[in-house]
Amino acid sequence: MTRMLYKYRKNNAQWVRVATVLELIHRYLGGNKSRVEFFKEREEISIQSLIDLEEFYNTDHIFMTEDEINKFKKDLDFYKYDPNINIRKQIQELLSKAPPII
Question: Where are the domains of the chain?
């Protein structure tokens, strides 16, 4: 969905906010999993994790060096639209997985 947002964006600000949140979720909850592996899962994120995420979102960039900020921006490329990726196929794969047991 983030890639679709990138493709049809009216400006970068909206997409950057969404991509930043997803990158922080992956960074702090993804463990050793690749972004692809992590985002293919259908595990729920706890409310406490989302509250903690808000704090990271508000403060994470404050303590980064310029090199770290540039690397972070480069990491956001993962969330950009790529015409070589079949988004419909990826959505169908996600929809075919069983939902998490609650």
Answer: 2-96
